[in-house]
Amino acid sequence: MKKICFIAFIVMMLRLGLNAQTVTFSHSGGFYESSFSLELTCDPAYHIRYTTNGAAPDANSTLYTGPLYLNEGLYSNSNIYTIPTTIDELLFTPDSVMKCIIIRACAFDNDENCVGTVTTQSYFINELGCDTHGLPAMSIAADSSDLFDYYTGIFVKGVNFDPEYSYWTGNYYMSGDEWERVVNIEFYETADNSGVNQTAGLRTHGGTARRGPQKGMKLYARQEYGTKRFYHKFFNDSPKNSVKHLVLKPFSCQWFSIGIQDWICNSMARSIGLEYILSRPEALFINGEYWGIYYVSERPDSHYLEDHFGHSDDDYNVIGSWHGEAEDGQNVNFIQMMQWLEDADLSDSTNYEHLCSLIDVDNFINYYCLELFIANNDWPANNMRCYQYLDGKWRWIFFDGDDCLQKMDFDVFSNATCEQNLGWPTDAISTLMFRRLLENNDFRSAFYTRFEHLLSNQFDYAATNPYLTFAKSLVIDEIPQQAARFNRPKNLSSWINSVNDIDSFMGDRCDNMRDRINEFFVSLGENQSITASIFPNPTHGQIHINLTDNQFTTIKIQVFSLVGTLLYEEYATTSLAIDMPTGIYLIKIGNSTQRVVVI
Q1: Where in the chain are the domains?
Q2: pTM: predicted TM-score of the whole model, two decimal places
Q3: How far is CA 48 from CA 186, 341, 586, in A?
């Protein structure tokens, strides 16, 4: 497809020559409060034809005869939102959708030959009810057959759908150059209508996101389409004013239809020094019709690494699975390392030091601490990405936190150390490195110490709650329109309830994880030598507890009344002093309980 598009582009330019005509719009696309008259002009030797449904103009398109007053009469009447784009059980068709005005125009000669390139501008007019509630807008214009045709459409089940494998087949699951479609994209900031307006390549993207009605997508800037990058500062935290690739992550693809988990998790990744994905919510329109909330995001590939860390993208090796699938560059080093790990004994310091020369252990620990804390239910067999610069150490990139921050009872350590070949969400190959590293006492100590530090700092609720609050504020006003368009979430009330569930998870997670990590390290034998003494007993007013032979494990200490009421709880590593009034108490230290008298 890319080669065909490039050839077509060259042929078109040769045919048009230096006299290629461009239609000029009196107003550029973007956000406007009120309607106005739009004037189109070109060389008087030619005339203008235009469309309002996203299609490129041809000889049969409407002839421009004078200024166009931008009102509802210029909305597309194609109603593409009624076209089925998913399996029957996920299908939802709204009664109507919000629309923007999209004008595509081109100059024609007297023989109705196109003599210039197509110019596209989209208008989001508040007076007409096109309100994105502060979100930037992206408008995609595409030939309808490229998206919805039975044979060529990348948004439909189409010719490649197999009812026997309905969840993983369909045109939207096809990949490769031949399934890239040429589109025009516009992106507008609400403040000043700055952004981009250019031709790009479009493909579907993701796993379950391809299947749903709100499709995951990738956008490619290519020289053969006119420019090799998207020249706009999409992300304030990015060091670059341009990007090579963009991912459009649909709001409804995130599990439980809450939509904000991935943004929160990436914010947490940033706070602990992990490589993470920048993203921001936007309102998407396709051929003039509202397509819901999306997150325009970076793509974790070699171009991302070039943008963030410099060097040429050709100097990076990027691995997309524990099996060694190369996303970019070569996978030889990674596969050799994993093969060596199969039989390596990392309790041996020489072997451990060798692995430390191949991977950035601190980065790996941060990566695992985050994945375990957020209870990622779509990992580690899925959503793994690591990279190396030249022959340097492997580092991990966090991405895709869609199925996170929900399942407090999910046994994350069993998931991360599974030795069975389950395939998803975990299997023996995806847990191999972590399991081997846990054989080494130095790694155990470093891992535990770092986790405990994060639980008391970056993962503490006081640190993470602002991420939730901000993520919620960005999209809450747009949720009713998202719900009406895709029924995911069902309504604003159900969404707020789900957001509150995330808030509860984050509020309770640190204490929950302390229990889980201590239980896990007990299972590894770390607590077997720990003894506790309480002195004096009886005591006057203050209970003194001393933990002996404890190298680094934090132990939960609880004080109960004789009838079982919890009166006090704290975590300690070596010693603790507790002030209590006169009485008789039960002190639970780890899994043992002792009686103490305070006089």
Answers
A1: 20-297, 319-458+490-523, 531-598
A2: 0.86
A3: 21, 66, 87
